[in-house]
Amino acid sequence: MPNDWEIKIVEEKTIPEGIEVICGLPDVGLVGVIAAAHIISKLGLEEVAYVETDLLPPIIILEDGLPKSPVRIFGNNSIAILSSEIAIPSEIVSPVVRRIIDWAWEKKVKRIFTLGGLPVPNRHEIEKLKIFGAASEDSLLKIIRENDVEVIQRGFLAGPQALILKYCSEKNIPAIALLAEAFYNYPDPEASSVVIQALNKIMGINVDVSELIEKGEEVRLAMRDMMRRTQSELARMRKSHEYDIPGYYIK
Amino acid sequence: MSMRRRRSIFDLMREYMEEIENLADEMFERLMERPSWDVTSQSLEPLCDILVSSDKVIVTADLPKVDPESIRISGISDDLIEINAKMKVKVNFEDLGVTHRRGEFTCFSCRVPLPVPVDISRAKARFRKGILEIILPRKVGYEIKVE
What we know:
By secondary structure, chain A is α/β, with parallel strands linked by helices. Chain A has 8 helices and 11 strands. Chain A has a single domain, classed as PAC-like subunit (Rossmann fold), CATH 3.40.50.10900. Chain A starts with 6 loop residues before the first strand and ends in a 15-residue tail after the last helix. By secondary structure, chain B is α+β, with helices and mostly antiparallel strands. In chain B, the strands form 2 sheets. A 5-stranded mixed beta sheet of chain B has the order 1-2-7-6-5, with no helix packed on it. A 4-stranded antiparallel beta sheet of chain B has the order 3-4-9-8, with no helix packed on it.
């Protein structure tokens, strides 16, 4: 069983305390990953930190011939965005997310947003995608509702979003999950654009999504291999649990 | 004299299921360890999904940048179909941000093994939002009358 201390967040630039953190980890439709990449590009964020651990597969990203960690943090003085360019093996999702949340706690982050998708089997028949939300504490649900995001009243959540909410709740870090209806197995830039629009409202930022929608086919083509790798990890994470109807209960 | 515990039918079933699961995992891993593209045939392998219900099998495939008129679906056997589709524009590695490989792609191509036999002659297909959906009715067996 891997230990948290085997995972380090190496800061290459000074990251101020009290910033807001956005997580876009590989999950259904790669909604969070695509959204994170788009926000990083639109806000011109630079690499500020990376995740260092021997628990990840022996893979590096080469950028201009130089090695980079596949799990990195991009940011400026007010925002830090965490994303991964590889599918994170299901068995290390827990320790990696736990370490990131510990780091966020040490950094006294103001809020954490986790972006993702909510799989729907008939996704290709849906014209207008709905967005749903959940949070680590009661007071944040009001913010979610005020910004036209429907709160998930009851249901299962599996994978990185579930762990981020759980660990943030334990550490009293305000965290919001924004999940758009999405394809389970196919990259879904349209769902990413819906998530970004909700984030724009809640955070008071202005990330234009028109380019993401226009270049949707290119994004789907480019994300094919990452989606393929993520599919097998989703199955191992029992992601289909999200389709399950929770058992009978009395309110 | 040592006593050998007789394994129950449930133990045997569990072992058998574990064996099948391991084999499926192994096959999946092996399938992953090859490229999703083929420079010789200039083809990309699309992402596919299969859903089996009581009366039909639904196969979907993500086909970005494809010309809908060019999509061809062939039934190879009652449990294997082939999908071919031409792209509206050629795509090369550089378009995908990769500069150390050579080659360009003009189409999507794949064979999809189906988990149950289907009646290909009654299959229907549609293409919406870049997703191909093929609905294949399952083969009907003999009906058993309930007395």
